Amino acid sequence: MGLSIAGTTELLEHLVEQRELLVGCEGYVAHDGGETSFALGIGAPGKECDGGTIWRLACGGKPLVAIGVACLVEDGMLDLEDAVSSIIPEFRGGNKEAITVENVLSHTANLDPYHRGNPEFAKLSREARHEKVCSLVIRQGRLPGERSDYSDYAAWHLLGCIIEQLSEQPFGDFLRERLFQPLGMADTFFSMTTGEYEQAASRIGVFYDLRGHSPAPMLFDRTQLSCSLWDPAQGCYATAADLGRFYLGLLRIQQGNAGILSQDVLQRFVGRGRGVMWDHTFRRNCEFGLGFMRNLSLFEAGSWCSRESYGHLAFGGMIVGFCDPVHDLVVSLVVNGLLDWSAQATPRSESAVRRRIRIVDAIYEDVLGPDLLRRQPSR
Fold it and tell me: Do the Cβ atoms of 55 and 226 come closer than 8 Å?
C-alpha cells in the first residue's frame, strides 16, 4: 500500500533548489501497513539520487551491531549481565573485570575514548585486532555504571569482538546471516569483500562538505579501502530503504509478529532502561537503550518523536533512522549536504538541526495529520 508524503516532498524539493542546504537526499517511510521511498538531487558526482544509493551510515549502523548482540542473547549464548572478561579473558586489569555487556551497550562502561586511527587497523588479523581492543582502559577515577559517556568507537569495537568471539565468525558475516538476509536487507554491508565492492561501487553515494564556498565531495567513502574496513562503529554501508526495513522488522516484532528476536529480548534493547541522564560526551540530558538512542526529541531528531521512539542519528544528524512505536512509524533519511558535525554549536550546525527537524516534522504531519499531532504532543 502506498503512502502519501506530499508535504515532505515539497519541502525537500525546495531544499534541493536551495543547494546550500541540501545536495541530495533519499529516504523511506512506513506507517500503518503502507510504505514509500523518495529520492531527490545529487547522490555523487555524475550520479542522481535514485533510491538505490548505498551510503556509509557512520553511527547510523550502530543499532545493527546492537541487534547482533541481541541475537546472541536470543540464542542463549550471552547474558547482558555477563562480564566482558568472561567472554574475552584478555579484557582484564584496571577494573575492567567489572564491565558488563550491558555497560558497553548503554554507554556506561566509561571506556577511555579512542579513534580507529590509521586504516591499517582494518588489515590486522582477528587476533591482533582483539588484542588492540583489549588494551582499552577505563577513564581514570571512574567505575563502570557510574555515569553516561557516549562511546563513539571503543564500545562498538569491543562489541564487534564479542560477536566474533561467541559466533566464531567475522561479525559482518554473522550480521548478514542473522539480520540482513532475514529482513531482506540485500544492500547492507560491513567490511565489503572485493566482489561485493565491485558490484556496489557505482551505487555508492558521496557526502558533500558545504562549509566552504561550494559543495566539496568527500570521496573517501567510495574507495575500496573505506568499504572494506573492519569497523563496527562507523563502517556500515546501506541504502536508506534497507535501514528502514531494519526498523520496520523491529516494529513488527513489537506489534506481536514473528521476527529475528522475541519481544522480550527486543524490549531489553529498545525499552526504557536507566531513563534520562546527563551524558558527559554530548553534554546534555540524553536517554539510551542498549545500542539505541531513545526519546529522540531529546536528540532534536524531530518535534513529534514520542518518548518511546528509538533509533540513531549520524553525521550531525544528516543520517536518521528510527522507529516510533507510539505512532506506528518508521523513518530513514539520508541527506548528503553536511553543514557541521562538531560538538560545538555554530550557526551552521544550528542550521543542520533546524533542517533535520523540518524534514522529520513534515513526515509526521504528512503521515499523522496536523490535527492528530496537536492531540498527541511528544513533550
Answer: no
Query: How far apart, in whole angstroms, are the C-alpha atoms of residue 338 and residue 315?
Result: 8
User: If we measure between CA atoms, which residue out of 251, 290, 231 comes closest to residue 72?
Assistant: 290
Q: Is 142 left (phi over 0), alpha (psi -120 to 50) or beta?
A: beta
- Nearest CA to 248 out of 362, 135, 325, 159 is that of 325
Are the CB atoms for 57 and 168 separated by under 8 Å? no
Q: How much is the pTM?
A: 0.94
| 36 in Cβ contact with 12 (< 8 Å) | no
* Contact of 97 with 83, CB cutoff 8 Å: yes
Characterize the bridge pairing of strands 34-44 and 55-56: unpaired
Residue 77 burial (10 A CB sphere; 0-12, 13-18, 19+): middle
Selection from 143, 130, 161 nearest residue 99 by Cα:
143
| 196/242 Cα distance (integer angstroms) | 16
The residue count for the chain: 379
**Strand 337-338 to 207-209 pairing:** parallel
> Residues 12-55: pLDDT tens digits?
998 888 765 678 999 999 999 999 999 999 999 999 999 999 99
